[in-house]
Structure formats: C-alpha cells, structure tokens
Amino acid sequence: VSVSFVPSRVRRGRRAASGATVALSLLLLAACGGGSLSEGGGGSENEGPVKIGLSVPISGVYASLGEDMTQGFELYLEQNDGQLGGRDIEVVKADEGESPQTGVPATTKLVTQNQVSAVVGIVNSATALGLKDTFVQSEVPLVIANAGADELTDDASPYIWRTSFTNGQVGAALGAAVAEELGDKEVYLMAADYAAGHESTDGFRETFTAAGGKIAGETFTPFGTTSDWQPFLSKVRASKAGAVYVFYAGAEAVNFVKQYDSFGLGQNAQLYGAGFLTEGGVLDAQGDAATGVKTSLHYSHLLDTERNKEFVEAYQAAYDEVPTVYAVQAYDAAAALDAALEGAESTDGAGVAEALADVGEIDSPRGTWSFDEDHNPDQPYYLREVQETDGGLANAVVQELEQ
Ligand code: PHB
Question: Which of 97, 122, 240, 251 is least surrounded by CB atoms within 10 angstroms?
Fold first, then answer.
C-alpha cells in the first residue's frame, strides 16, 4: 500500500496552518515576484518525493509494537512537514506479520517492486536475519528500528543500521545489578524460543554469573504458539529459584506476566526481564499483575529531561497515549534518515547508505546518541520498576545501569 503523507492517526496540532494563512502566504509570494513555488527548480534527478519503506507488524503477536513504531515514525514526519532532509517523503508500508514467512517476502517487495531508497522497521530478529542478505546485495539500507539480533550488525555492513539495541546488551545491562540485589538466591531463565530470547538470556547470564550470580535452570518456550505457561512455571517452582529473568514481548508478555502473578510465584521469586516485558500497551493489559516487575531498557517515558518531556507531550497530543521504546526507535530512524538525506549526494540506496555513516549525533527523547562502529546506538540502559505513579502504572526509572 502506498500512502501519500498525512498520517491518518495524527491529529492536526495547534500549529497547523489555517486555509486563510496559506492563502495569505501564497499572495505574499506572488507579490514578491516569486514565479515558482518549487525550491530547486528544473529537471535534476533529485526532484520529487523520496520513497521510504516502513515494514512493521500489522498482525500477529507483535502487532501492537508495530503500531507504536508507525506512530513514532509518522510523528517525526508530521513535525517536519512530511519531509526528511528537505525532501518530500512517500511512505510505502508493508505488514511484517509475526514471522520470517510473512516478513521476508513483504519487506523484500519494498525493495524489488517499490524501489524504495531505504526501509525502516522490523520487529522480529528472525525476520531481520532472513532479510539481511537481500539488503546487502541490493545496496539498499535497512534501518532496523527494533529487532535486536546481535549477528545483524556483527560485520558492520554499510547497508545495515540499527536505531534500537542488541538483545545481548539489554540482558547484560541487568546482570550485575541483579546479582547484587539477590545475594545467595538463584535465578531461573525463561524466554521465547528464537534468536531474541536466546541472546537476551545469554547476555544476562554472562554478566550475572561474572558478578557471582547462580543459575537455577532454564526453559525456552515455543514462540507465538504458547498460551499456557503453567507447565513451565511449575518447573520454576520446583527449582526453588529465588528470582526469574525472562524475555517476552507483545502479546506473549501480557500472558506471561498475568500467569506468573496468578500462579503465585511473585511472592517468592522477584520477576526481572528485558524491558519489553512491561512496555506500553502490554503494561496496560497486565495491570496490577505487573506491579514490582524490574526490567532493563534504554527508555522510559518517565525519563526526566526537557527533550523527553517535549516529545511525550507531542506524542500524547497526537495519539492520546504515552510513547513506548518502539515509538522512540522509529522516531529516531526518521531522525537518522533526516540527517542522512540532508547530506546525501544521491537518494538511491547506495547514496543514502553512504550518508548514514555521517549522521553524527541524534537528539533523541532517550538522550543524545550516535551510531557505534557496528552501527548500533551507543546509549545508556536503565533499571526500571513498575510502580503506581500519578499517571497510573508505569516504568519508574530507578537508576542508570553500569555497562
Ligand atoms: C526481537 O525479535 O529481537 C525482539 C522482538 C520484540 C522485542 C524485542 C526484540 O520487544
């Protein structure tokens, strides 16, 4: 589906020009002798809108994450008059769906048929891994705005960039702090059985055991098809673990946290996780069952900075809800492309990829960051705890984590 820009879900803000203002400006332009409204004028290949693909899940367990990403991406465009780097943008959307079976063909089509200059999005690591070669071989940049598989960026391809995180990093950020908090208690690891779940628990295990922590056991649950966690939770209980670390996101996170609470494990075993566990709409759906859950992440809408407050306010005005990490990652992907297109010598894939290497610092709601040598954000991680706040249940920022 190709959509011309005017995001349907973004409510027009107070700053939108009224018909009268526009008419007046046009009159003034005419009076000043401006014969043409186009800026560059005349026949260069760099005219007309630049096509950018947006591929996020519109269906499946990660659909709510995809919606947040679309909202973040569209808010950035909205705030910049539908332009990136001074160029009008045509957004071409694809449904990543739940798995590589849907995400790989839908996203590949953006490159082969729609001939976009870059693609933003991709939630699922398995899907991103299945797409990597296509982007590298087509010389079109993929700006990953979520999927955290470590391997995606391990060779720093000029065509693979990431505005999110690596799954290993998010897990690793929490290990030492949990070891210190728990003393002698052991931790049980549980996660969705695919790249993201394995890398997240590997990252956690590494820093947790290095700090003296002990692992009681581990279980990986079938991704996308598990709806009853009781058999797995029984194993945790039998292990007598004093705490649990998990990787779940989207609809799986909702079910897991609710069942963890109703199974009564919460009283004996503190629940920790990668921050996706309690992010955004997921937390609303979990309600009280999530109170006290502790996670690591590179964002909370409660981060106390001017830049973040201004962003949260704009996001709430547009969508009537607080922003999530997914929205910020896609917002920042738009910011990275904005800076890249500003400096790009050409707007084909190779030109945009080359310009991405020079974008410098991104002034993000999460804090200022830049791409590291592997094309991942160089950024801090925070310990968050689900607490009752003035705005209801939210991920309060407890401390910045040492890395
Ligand atoms: C991933 O597949 O890498 C992934 C998916 C959902 C998340 C985080 C990571 O919330």
Answer: 240
389 C-beta neighbours (distance < 10 Å), count: 11
Contact 307, 315 (CB under 8 A): no
One DSSP character per residue, 78-129 reads: HHTTTEETTEEEEEEEEE--SSHHHHHHHHHHHHHTS--SEEEE---HHHHH
Distance CA 111, CA 135 (A): 8
d(CA 374, CA 352): 17
147 lines ligand 1 (CB under 6 A): yes
At CA 320, angle to CA 391 and CA 294, rounded to 5?
40
Asked whether the predicted pLDDT for residue 210 surpasses 70, the reply is: yes
pLDDT in tens, 319-360: 999 999 999 999 999 999 999 999 999 999 999 999 999 999
Is the distance from the beta carbon of residue 167 to the nearest atom of ligand 1 less than 6 Å?
yes
Which structure tokens are listed for 44? 């260069």
Q: Check if 125 has its Cβ closer than 6 Å to any atom of ligand 1.
A: yes
Find the angle CA(314)-CA(318)-CA(322) to the nearest 5 degrees.
Answer: 70
Structure-token pair, residue 197:
């779940």
Ligand 1 nearest-atom number relative to CA 65 = 10
Q: How far is the CA of 40 from the centre of ligand 1 (A)?
A: 42
Residue 310, strand partner residues? none
User: Quick one: which of 226, 398, 150 has its CA closest to 296?
Assistant: 398
